[in-house]
């Protein structure tokens, strides 16, 4: 009689880790008499093949299916081959051998033919036949890897390819599939390409001159000449300095330009690159393409050598005439040892300074101030003349006033009265005529502010009227009109007494005598 119908516990913990155990009793508490092996152990025993079995052996489970595009992915068979191509209408070759590589892709049984690129072959090379399944015959069959072997011919689209060899992977794969490979053959090269690789035969008698000996003896030995190119006879031409290098190792010449600071030229150092320069040409035909072909020994009769350069003589290099005026110390020693030349007197090629042209100032035309008109002769954009700022600040609003009358043969002018104002800040004189009723003359400004030169002074070095020249009874000539000073205001006397060092004693004394009666009358009134 069963009273418990639960399943036995199969999960247990040991040392903090959970593990699974097999049940020992079943439902109702009945003890189970079964194998105590796990399912993994049972599977291992079922797949194990014992050495001695009794009864029918158990078969191992079949392996997983792998498709061809996965099993043969990126596995390619490579064969080396060539084909022969006819070359019509050529006297140098009748056929051409073109090497190719034949690739067989195992994943989809497709093939491609690639031709390696040969430099300067003149033939479009690269992909010869794109990747595809190639037809084998007219019945619709396609090439299979079983049809490929070394030492056989295959025809693809009318062209016959000869397979001569394959790589190691292809050989291993075909042998593993039970295919017996033929012996590899030697690759055939194009006879015309091999002929071009051979140096052409030259029937030239070797020279006794040893270039290697010259190079070893004169390596890093250079002759240096200092030259000048005079191009002043052309429009905008100039005299430019150059350095001519002659390399003794290979008889080459180089011309380098000497740049000066702020010369306005781009910093290109080399005018003529290092090369052999021809001195005398042979007679060239009119159809000789000199613009595309380099000059060789067949066109030149004589090249420039070290003996063609000398100090103090002109040398024409590629159409330009250079005058050599000096050289360095090594060049002097070389010419002395080689040619016995000791005359190396340097030539002075400095351009003489041009004669200074004296600037002649034109005569003053009478318009404006003399200083302002003179500025037009000094610059294109005239600048205002500089002023004495200190003097203007010290004598600001200081004006000396004098009463003058005009000296004239006209009796009407002798009755006219004027006020002469001398501005101490700018040394300018202005004349004002007070209006008089019923005189018939309009009063007002007679002369604006200007500097008045003394009679007899020239425009090159003018002498202007100063406060010391303005005294009682003095005659002032203003642009052809004469004025006589007859009176002055009290500020003139005060200014003279305050600045005695600027006025002669006679001028101050005459001014005091003039104001003495007036001062006495004032003192009398004060009493």
Question: What secondary-structure arrangement, pairings included, does this model have?
Answer:
Layout: E1 11-14, E2 17-20, H1 39-47, H2 68-71, E3 76-86, E4 95-105, E5 110-115, E6 126-132, E7 152-156, E8 159-166, H3 168-176, H4 191-197, H5 211-218, E9 222-230, E10 239-247, E11 252-257, E12 270-275, E13 278-281, E14 300-303, E15 314-317, E16 320-327, H6 329-338, H7 370-375, H8 389-394, E17 399-407, H9 411-414, E18 417-423, E19 428-433, E20 444-450, E21 475-478, E22 481-488, H10 490-498, H11 505-526
Antiparallel strand pairs: 1-2, 3-4, 3-8, 4-5, 5-6, 7-8, 9-10, 9-16, 10-11, 11-12, 13-14, 15-16, 17-18, 17-22, 18-19, 19-20, 21-22
Helix pairs in contact: 10-11
Keywords:
6-stranded antiparallel β-sheet; cytoplasm; 527 residues; DM10_dom; alpha-tubulin binding; EF-hand domain containing 1
Write a structural description.
InterPro entries: DM10_dom, EFHC1/EFHC2/EFHB. It comes from Laticauda laticaudata (Blue-ringed sea krait). This protein has helices at residues 39-47, 68-71, 168-176, 191-197, 211-218, 329-338, 370-375, 389-394, 411-414, 490-498, 505-526, and strands at 11-14, 17-20, 76-86, 95-105, 110-115, 126-132, 152-156, 159-166, 222-230, 239-247, 252-257, 270-275, 278-281, 300-303, 314-317, 320-327, 399-407, 417-423, 428-433, 444-450, 475-478, 481-488. With 527 residues, the protein is of the alpha+beta class. Strand 9 (222-230) and strand 10 form a beta hairpin. It is elongated.
């Amino acid at each position: 009689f069963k009273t418990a119908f639960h399943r036995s516990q199969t999960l247990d913990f040991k040392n903090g880790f959970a593990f699974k155990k097999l049940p020992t009793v079943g439902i109702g508490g009945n003890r189970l008499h079964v194998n105590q092996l796990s399912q993994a152990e049972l599977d291992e025993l079922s797949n194990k093949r014992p050495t001695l079995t009794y009864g029918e052996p158990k078969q191992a489970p079949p392996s997983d299916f792998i498709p061809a595009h996965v099993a043969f992915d990126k596995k390619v068979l490579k064969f080396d081959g060539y084909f022969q191509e006819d070359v019509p209408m050529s006297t140098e070759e009748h056929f051409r051998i073109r090497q190719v590589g034949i690739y067989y892709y195992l994943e989809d049984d497709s093939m491609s033919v690639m031709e390696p690129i040969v430099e300067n072959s003149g033939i479009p090379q690269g992909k010869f036949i794109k990747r595809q399944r190639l037809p084998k015959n007219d019945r619709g069959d396609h090439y299979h890897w079983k049809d490929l072997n070394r030492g056989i011919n295959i025809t693809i689209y009318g062209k016959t390819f000869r397979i001569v060899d394959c790589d190691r992977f292809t050989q291993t794969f075909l042998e593993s599939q039970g295919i017996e490979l033929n012996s590899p053959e030697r690759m055939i090269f194009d006879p015309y390409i091999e002929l071009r690789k051979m140096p052409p035969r030259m029937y030239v008698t070797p020279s006794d001159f040893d270039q290697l000996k010259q190079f070893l003896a004169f390596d890093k030995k250079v002759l240096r000449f200092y030259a000048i190119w005079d191009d002043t006879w052309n429009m905008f031409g100039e005299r430019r300095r150059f350095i001519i290098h002659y390399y003794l190792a290979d008889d080459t010449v180089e011309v380098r330009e000497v740049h000066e600071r702020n010369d306005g030229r781009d910093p290109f150092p080399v005018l003529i690159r290092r090369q052999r320069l021809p001195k005398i040409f042979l007679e060239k035909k009119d159809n000789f393409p000199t613009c595309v072909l380099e000059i060789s020994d067949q066109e030149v009769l004589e090249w420039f050598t070290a003996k063609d350069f000398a100090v103090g003589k002109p040398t024409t290099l590629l159409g330009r005439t250079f005058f050599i005026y000096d050289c360095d110390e090594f060049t002097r020693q070389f010419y002395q040892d080689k040619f016995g030349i000791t005359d190396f007197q340097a030539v002075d090629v400095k351009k003489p300074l041009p004669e200074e042209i004296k600037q002649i100032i034109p005569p003053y035309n009478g318009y404006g101030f003399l200083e302002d008109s003179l500025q037009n002769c000094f610059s294109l954009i005239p600048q205002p003349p500089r002023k004495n700022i200190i003097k203007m600040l010290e004598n600001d609003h200081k004006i000396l006033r004098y009463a003058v009358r005009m000296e004239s043969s006209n009796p009407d002018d002798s009755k006219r009265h004027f006020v002469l104002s001398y501005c101490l800040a700018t040394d300018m004189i202005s004349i004002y005529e007070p209006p008089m009723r019923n005189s018939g003359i309009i009063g007002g400004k007679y002369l604006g502010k200007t500097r008045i030169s003394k009679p007899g002074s020239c425009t090159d070095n003018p002498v202007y009227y100063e406060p010391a020249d303005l005294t009682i009874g003095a005659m002032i000539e203003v642009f052809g009109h004469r004025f006589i000073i007859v009176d002055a205001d009290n500020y003139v006397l005060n200014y003279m007494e305050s600045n005695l060092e600027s006025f002669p004693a006679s001028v101050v004394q005459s001014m005091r005598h003039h104001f003495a009666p007036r001062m006495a009358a004032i003192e009398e009134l004060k009493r």
